[in-house]
Amino acid sequence: MSDGRPASHEAIENPAGRPDTPRGDRDRDRAGAAPAVSAAPVAPPAWRAQLLVAAVVLAALNLRPAVTSLGALLEEVREGFGMSGAVAGLLTSVPSLCFAAFGVAAPRLARRFGAAAVVCAGMAAIAVGLLARPWTGSTAALLGATALALMGIAVSNILMPVIVKERFPDRVGPMTGLYSMALALGTSSAAALTVPLTGALGGDWRLGLAAWSLLALAAALVWLPLLRDREHAPRSRPRTGAPTPARAPARPPMRSITRSRTAWSLAVFFGLQSTCAYVTMGWLAQIFRDAGVSAGTAGVLLAVSMVMGVPLSFVIPRMAARLPHQGPMVIALGVSGLAGYTGLILAPASGAWLWAVLLGLANCAFPLALTMVGMRARTGEGVGRLSAFAQSTGYLISIPGPVLVGVLYQHSGGWSLPLTLMAALMIPQMIFGVLAGRNRTVEEELAPRQDPATAAVR
Questions:
Q1: With the CA atoms of 79, 80, 82 and 88 taken in that order, what torsion angle do they form, in degrees rounded to the nearest 10?
Q2: 115-132 and 106-113 are packed helices; what angle lies between their axes, rounded to 10 degrees?
Q3: Quick check: helix, strand or coil at residue 347?
Q4: Which pTM was predicted?
Q5: How far is CA 246 from CA 40, 74, 307, 382, 441, in A?
Q6: Which tops the pLDDT comparison, 50 or 125?
Q7: Average pLDDT of 421-432?
Q8: How do residues 142-165 score in pLDDT, each as one tens digit?
């Protein structure tokens, strides 16, 4: 979950770490004359593996509270800092900007310092940013502290799936499910608990926001013992006496990913669904409060919308993988969003629970988009390039949406015009999602024209 899948997802798994390695081969290795130290990679101790599982879960829990906790108290933050609606909209757009700007640096940082060190630093940045932002003296400083927290989220968001792939090569599915569930749980918990937590802390919204820094601090402390964990990670190093695997024949290079219509369709789909998600996280609680719903109930409604992703993050990718064309799923989720926004325009308070559920369903376009990234490319290189392009371009596309919603809210004096805009955006989201869901790959679109094999396939 959240908000990228890095190219290193396709890292080669260690043959020696697979459960199906023949026992006879291992016995011959032990009986041979080669030194034992080069027989196989060092396996991590049991306690370290358990600690890593806890660290993964804690990191995932911290990847969205910076966004949804702010959405639950956006009215108090606006009054405390004297923000206009446009500036508040800019604040809700900062996540997309930071994810696009800082996420691309994560693989390079991981190669230099190690993925565990970068994630630990990311958790520390989240803790510092969340602790500092309520106490800053100006809107600019608030934006800076929020950006610091989101920078930590961006690099951690990119590297967490890499760590799962490298450290749990035989349990990628279960660990990814655990990671996705923890991410959705952190998202919904921050939305539901921030307002009650503020009340329990004396009604000071600054304490309610800053309290989430403790969760990030706990995650950073758990990651500290794992900073020198490289020697325990499974590696694709062949054992002594094992034959060196033959290199695959070099494939002709693909043309620029920007020449792929599928890549552009997927990028626009990703950007529009991100717009919907960040408008929901940033403004939904405020929409309900302006309709007369209490602050506590509005936070719970936001949490209901967010928690829809917990079970559906398991179901939607499996359903999508069985379909040759994901267009019907795109349309179903888009219609849910269209109905949800229409309901908010016509009867925001009386149908609040239904609209929250429908918008939660619409936001499940995120796991669908990530699934399509893997299905629209057939090679590791293709998946990496498509993922980087679709997500970075998509996050850039999503930046204006929450700002524009804030501007329209301020100048129109209500939510009808902003919600009409969001309902209208469901139409191009469905169109580009259907185009991105067609059964084709970017390799087919980008293969050199002179390649006879590709020409024959076409």
A1: -70
A2: 120
A3: coil
A4: 0.66
A5: 19, 58, 47, 21, 26
A6: 125
A7: 96
A8: 889 999 999 999 888 777 766 776
Handedness of CA 295, 128, 94, 341 (dihedral sign): negative
* Most confident among 94-103, 115-124, 169-178, 249-258 (mean pLDDT): 115-124
**Alpha helical stretches, state H, 45-171:** 46-61, 65-72, 74-81, 85-102, 106-113, 115-132, 139-167
- Report the Cα 168 to chain-centroid distance in Å: 19
The per-residue pLDDT for 44 is 58
Please state the domain extents for the chain.
45-233, 255-447
Task: Tell me the helices (H) and strands (E) count for the chain, helix number first.
Answer: 22, 0
CB-CB contact of 263 with 390 (8 Å): yes
Q: Mean pLDDT, to the nearest integer, of 320-335?
A: 91
DSSP letter string, 7-71: GGGGPPPPGGGSTTS-HHHHHHHHHSSS-GGGSSPPPPPHHHHHHHHHHHHHHHHTSSHHHHHHH
pLDDT tens digit sequence for 77-88: 888 888 877 777
Same fold, 45-233 and 255-447: yes
Structure tokens at 70: 């702010």
Instruction: Provide the pLDDT for residue 254.
Output: 57
CATH number for 45-233: choose from 1.20.1250.20, 3.20.20.70, 1.10.760.10, 3.90.230.10: 1.20.1250.20
CA 38, CA 40: separation in Å to the nearest integer?
6
Q: Is 342 helix (H, G, I), strand (E, B) or coil?
A: helix
Q: HEC profile for 215-228?
A: HHHHHHHHHHHHCC
CATH code of domain 255-447: 1.20.1250.20
Residue 22 pLDDT exceeds 50: no
Token pair, residue 305, equals 């919308």
